[in-house]
Structures are given as structure tokens and as C-alpha cells.
Amino acid sequence: MMLEPPVGAAADEGLALPSAPAGEFCGVPSLHDALLARLRDFVVEGNLAPGARVPERLLCERFGVSRTPLREALKVLAAEGLIELLPNRGARVRQLGPEELVALFDMMGGLEALAGRLACEKIAEPAFADIERLHHEMYGFYLRRDLRGYFACNQAIHDRIVEAADNEPLRAAYANVAGRLRRARYAANLDANRDRWGEAMREHEAILDALRRRAGDELGDILFRHLRNKRRAAAPRENAPPPPDRSDG
């Protein structure tokens, strides 16, 4: 399939905050989950640079909450590996060092390669059809330059392959590493030096084709290379010097 190269699309690394719908967090029972989801997306989508301080006051204004629920949500993101809590100094976006970035992406590549091989042995046709549907939805987002929608489908495809492997220890290990790499995987599509987004889409075409043919060894190799390429694309942003430490009061 011929792929139309996309233009870059993402929020800047500054603190310009998009507006939220009025009353977004009025439902008290869902306050924590809704806030957590929006805050997680805010960090993953690169609105704050790796190593940047979390601007609590601005985020409280953005989401219409006090600092108590915001800090509770930050604790969850810290457990997921996205945020680093600083004793008596707030929090900052967790920046992965060069060696840690290589190690985590290689581990993820190994886990996904194993999942691909097992999925080819075990996947049922309805599960494959679901992955194929997600792939076509993802391609639609790609053509519309909708990186948020693309990334959601992309992650769902990888998750479905792991689920199809039907191996609980593998699933647990994958979930742990995936949370720590979620922001870096998103950032890989923002590579300004080459068309990583288009390259990733082409790799997903090969992933779907190998899974369709139940070619386990081939799929494993493709998935491992796919993660290696993501790491190379993510490294310049992840390893850039952190921005100056600014307190928001």
C-alpha cells in the first residue's frame, strides 16, 4: 500500500494548555479516573519535556481540581514510571537515560517477539479479525494526521497480540515495561529528522501480513526490529537536556 507521508503533529513542549470542556470533572465518583486518564495523556503526548517539572498550579487550573486529587493522580503515574516524585519539591516527568532506554526497548522487543510467535500458534480467527479492524482504523487516523487516534489503535494492536499469546507471565511483564515506555513510544512518531510515522505504518503492514499467514518466526523478527526502530527515533527527544527547573508556586 502506498502511504502518504504525514506532516509532524504534536503539542509543543511548552506549557500552553488546551482548554477543557466545562464541568468535565463534575462527577465526583469518576473524578479520580477521569483526571488520571487526562493527566496521563497530557504527559504521554509530550506536552511536558522529559525531565521537566510538573506545573501543578497550571494543571489544577486546566483540569479544575485542587492539588490534592492532582497529587493523588501523580502518585499513580509515578508507580507507572511516567512521573518522578521529588521530596518536598513536587514532581517531574521521568527522563530515561540512554542505557535505560536501550535496555527497556530491547526488553520490550524481546517480549513482543515472543508474543508474536505464540500468537501465531494460538490466535483464533475472530481475534485476528479484531486486530485487522484496528489496523484499518489506525491507517485512517494516519491519513488524517490524527496522532492521538493513531497511537490509541497502535497500542491496542500490540496489546491484542500479547493477549493472543495467552501467557499470563508474559502479559504481566509486558504491562510493566509498556507503562514505562508509553511516553517514549509516542514520542518516536514525532521524529523531525525522518518519516518515522510513515515507517511505523509500513512496519505494521508487515506485522499484519505475517500474523495473517501465522508466520511466527517472521512476525517475531519484525516486531523486534519495530521496537528497535522506535527506540532510535525516540532517543533524540528522550536524551535531550532537561529544561530549566521552574517552580510554578
TrEMBL record:
Membrane-crossing residue ranges in chain numbering: none
Highest taxon, organism lineage: Bacteria
HTH gntR-type domain: residues covered: 29-96
Residues in the signal sequence: none
Protein name from the UniProt record: HTH gntR-type domain-containing protein
InterPro entries documented for this protein: GntR_C, TF_FadR/GntR_C, Tscrpt_reg_HTH_GntR, WH-like_DNA-bd_sf, WH_DNA-bd_sf
UniProt keyword Ribosomal protein present: no
Keywords: DNA-binding, Transcription, Transcription regulation
